[in-house]
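Can anyone check this?
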Amino acid sequence: MTIMEAIDARHSVRAYLDRPIDRDTRQRLDEFVRECNLASGLDIFIRYGDPDGFDSRLAHYGHFRNVKNYIVLAGKKGPDFEYACGYYGEKIVLFAQQCGLNTCWAALTFNKRKVRELIPEGETLCMVIALGYGETQGAIRKSRKAEDVADSGMEQEWFAKGVIAALKAPTAVNQQKFMFSLKDREPFVRVRGLGSYTKVDLGIAACHFEAASGRKVRH
């Protein structure tokens, strides 16, 4: 599965099969996470076979079921902490999709107390991502149009591809509060409007844009 196929195939999945992630896949995931941490300075890690992270009323309220594996996005907080968590978290999500797994970003609907106990002193928990073999492959959600999230640059084919891929990115409550622009032949992305976790969403959208366009986006 190519990265673009992963972008098309990835949908949020909240209910999982009672099937452990095999050792070879775990090794591949852990190696990819190490590479992301080296590139970002974050302290992302994966918990396997641990149902405690989603053992809470909020998780049940959010319709999460049988989540026993999850990605923890954490690290030392700095100016770009949330953006980096979104960007590198989504890189891992797409890699997991290529490995035949399913995922779902979770900002509130998990057991924060238990997950925070896993975080080293001096580091901040951003979000977690449910991980495993889904009962289904999820469903396509509604999306804004390209002209709603780009105020210039759509005449360039590579830029348009990037924007279309960004519209397939997961965002908090599907808010898509981002705006892409092309200035002096360089792509930019910024938050547009108010919303929850918009900086994380910005990083997620940028990850998709770069994968599709082949160009680094500035923020």
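Reply from J.R.: I decoded it. The chain has a mean pLDDT of 95.
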